[in-house]
Every structure is written in structure tokens, then in C-alpha cells.
Amino acid sequence: MAKAFRFAPFIFTAIALEVAVFSILFKKGVPLFARVQEKIDRLNTIIRENLAGIRLSLPTAKAGGF
Q1: Read out DSSP for 18-43?
Q2: Whole-number Å distance between alpha carbons of 7 and 13
Q3: Which structural domain, as residue segments, surrounds residue 52?
Q4: Angle, CA 32 vertex, CA 29 and CA 34 arms, to 5°
Q5: Are 56 and 66 in contact (CB under 8 A)?
Q6: CA 9 – CA 15 distance, rounded (Å)
């Protein structure tokens, strides 16, 4: 039992360091993720608009499509 109390300050210090590191990574990671997500959203919008303008090919149209 005495060993547990002897190592307790090291464990608390390690936990505090982990929380600090994760919070720093989280603060830097969230804005980066948001920027990447906005760029992907813009790209998806452009691709969707381009796909909406494509005409159907002739075999698809003859098969009972349009």
C-alpha cells in the first residue's frame, strides 16, 4: 500500500500532461478539420452541379430511359 502512495504524484503528473497534450491537439485539430470539411463540401457541390449537367448516353436513352 505504501508503494501506491509513493507513485501517486507521478501518476497524477502523467495524467495532467496527457490532458494538456490532448487539449492542445484538440484546439489545433478542430479548426483544421473544419477547413478541410468546407473544402470537401465545396468540391462535392461542384461535382454534383457538373454531374447534373451531363446528358444521358444514347444506349441508356434507347433502353427505355428518356
Answers
A1: HHHHHHHHHHHHHHHHHHHHHHHHHH
A2: 10
A3: 2-62
A4: 110
A5: yes
A6: 10
Tell me the chain's radius of gyration from C-alpha atoms. Answer: 28
Sign, CA dihedral 12-14-17-19, equals negative
Q: pTM here? A: 0.54
pLDDT tens, the chain, 66 aa long? 667 678 888 999 999 999 999 999 999 999 999 999 999 999 999 999 888 877 766 565 555 555
> Under a CB-based contact definition with an 8 Å cutoff, are residues 56 and 65 in contact?
yes
Number of domains in the chain: 1
